[in-house]
Amino acid sequence: MNIGSTHAITGKFEVEALSVVAIQIPPISSQTMDDVHKNIDQLIAWMDRASAGFPGFDLFVSPECALNGFGPAWPQTCVDLNGPEIQRLKDKCKELKVFGVFNPLVKMVEGNKACNTAIIINDQGEIILTYVKTNPWIPGEGTYPGWYCPVVDGPKGSRLAVIICADGDYPEIWREAAVNGANIIIRVSHYMAPWDNAWEITNKAGAYCNQTYVVGANSVGVDEAYSYFGRSMILNPDGTIICEAPLGQPWMIKADLYPQIIDKIREEGVTNNFLWTYKHRGAAHPDLAGEGADTRIYKAYYQK
């Protein structure tokens, strides 16, 4: 422990720089599978642009709805994770030797129900994470809700989780991702006006309250009903914004993150080590002997 500052971590440890690129783009509201392929054309062009601008980058993050858009025919343009649309993205990740985060609409459960799905493809062109949106946006999004928030090993010591748009309005899913071991939480979004202030607040709170990097990629453009403001951002674990894209413009942001720092904060942090203290309430009181009380006081998750 660093006695001089309860906020500090101490000692020497190795870190690696994880280079992350996030984009904000205007997807087509797909009516046909040809529209889906046009959206994939746009994604691939941005991946090439990122590779040209930031050679050697590690992780590419694209927004929610970047494959399918969000229009009246949205559920009719679902893709197959083993189909030709996703194969194009697998091939591009393998070609560029990067990890990629994408958001297809997929029929995944019994009865062919549409699921708003995030995937991570590794630098070998393999899907290593599949996540179904836990909190679909009510009433506008009639997709089947998810059931688990997985975390996967990424490059440079990263442990990656993905949440999707309205998920980020619920503190529970941020905490679930962090407790499952994520040191970087990626939020892919199709977040519309006029909620740009809420976008910033929830991203900051997710980062600070869970002591994690946050990468938020949001759409821009206008569809049949909404306008999308962008403001994609990457945040530090103290909730400060490292970099941010402008309002309403197609854009690309890039930051170097250091996942091992997150791990060390959670291991050594004394003050504001939220992932430890929420399970060890009152540990500073002599009666609780540095161990504290557990989480059973919380009734919120047992209400119907």
Tell me about this structure.
This protein is an alpha/beta fold and 304 residues long. The protein folds into 2 domains: 18-268, Carbon-nitrogen hydrolase (Nitrilase/N-carbamoyl-D-aminoacid amidohydrolase, 4-Layer Sandwich); 271-304, no CATH class. The protein is built from 6 helices and 15 strands. The strands form 3 sheets. Strands 1, 2, 3, 4, 5, 6 and 15 form a 7-stranded mixed β-sheet that branches. It has a 6-stranded mixed β-sheet with strand order 7-8-9-10-13-14, covered by helices on one side. Strand 8 (159-164), helix 3 (171-179) and strand 9 form a beta-alpha-beta unit.
Topology diagram in text:
Elements: E1 18-24, H1 33-53, E2 59-61, H2 84-96, E3 99-102, E4 105-109, E5 113-121, E6 127-132, E7 152-153, E8 159-164, H3 171-179, E9 184-189, H4 196-210, E10 213-218, E11 220-222, E12 227-229, E13 233-235, E14 241-244, E15 251-257, H5 259-268, H6 274-277
Parallel strand pairs: 1-2, 2-3, 8-9, 9-10
Antiparallel strand pairs: 1-15, 3-5, 4-5, 5-6, 7-8, 10-13, 11-12, 13-14
List keywords for this structure.
304 residues; Nitrilase/N-carbamoyl-D-aminoacid amidohydrolase; 2 domains; 6-stranded mixed sheet; 15 strands; globular
